[in-house]
Amino acid sequence: MSRKIDKDKSLLRRFKPGQLRELSIDLPEVYTQNHSDLGMQMMIKPASEFIAEAQALINCVDAVSAKALYDESEGALIIDVRESANAEASQLIASINISRGLIEMKVPGLCPEPDTLILTHCGGGGRASLAAARLQEMGYTNVYAITAKFEDIKAVFG
């Protein structure tokens, strides 16, 4: 059974440098800070890994494909998951801004049907991918992340 070692660092301090490897203790691999006082290097999982995991689970499309999907669908929703300041500076004509941190709270009120086409976009595809994965997890079945740069999306969508 694995312990929540990150919450109880005093447990780690009981061991000498290198001793944890000898004991084969199952440590989480999600740290980057250097615990040199504990004799080990731990890694924090970077955002790029979360994004890659999300993209393996979702539908990713380029701007042209997203526009074709949008044009063929009635009632589609385009969600700009950037922070509001970025969205206010420049946004797509048909998009609605819902910051990634508010997806779970706001989308169900706007989109009660799980099979509605939802396109997510951001500045480069990362946040859009994370938001699309969350929407799928919430039960939406027709979600796509536009994984292009915002400038390219804006050129296609207007």
Explain how this protein is built:
This protein has 158 residues and is an alpha/beta fold. The chain folds into two domains: 5-41, no CATH class; 47-157, Oxidized Rhodanese, domain 1 (3-Layer(aba) Sandwich). Helix content is 42%, strand content 14%. The chain is built from eight helices and seven strands, in the order ααββαβαβαβαβαβα. The protein has helices at residues 9-13, 19-23, 47-57, 63-72, 84-89, 103-110, 126-138, 150-157, and strands at residues 34-35, 40-41, 59-61, 77-80, 95-97, 118-121, 143-146. A five-stranded parallel β-sheet has the order 3-7-6-4-5. A two-stranded antiparallel ribbon has the order 1-2. β4 (77-80), α5 and β5 form a beta-alpha-beta unit. α3 (47-57) packs across α7. The chain is globular, with a radius of gyration of 21 Å. It starts with 8 loop residues before the first helix and ends with a helix. 27% of the residues are buried.
**Oligomer category:** single chain
Cα-atom radius of gyration: 21 Å
Give unreliable regions as ranges: 1-8, 19-32
Count of helices? Answer: 8
What is the CATH architecture descriptor of the largest domain?
A: 3-Layer(aba) Sandwich
CATH superfamily of the largest domain: Rhodanese-like domain
| Tally of individual domains | 2
H and E string: HHEEHEHEHEHEHEH
Q: Using the coordinates above, name the CATH class of the largest domain.
A: Alpha Beta
CATH fold naming of the largest domain: Oxidized Rhodanese, domain 1
With strands numbered from the N-terminus, the spatial order across the biggest sheet is: 3-7-6-4-5
* Secondary structure tally: strands: 7
- What separation lies between the terminal Cα atoms? 54 Å
Query: Helical content, roughly?
Result: 40-55%
Strand content: 5-15%
Based on helices, strands and strand pairing, what is the structural class? alpha/beta
- Described by the principal axes of the CA atoms, the overall outline is globular
What's the rounded overall pLDDT mean? 83
Largest sheet: 5 strands, parallel
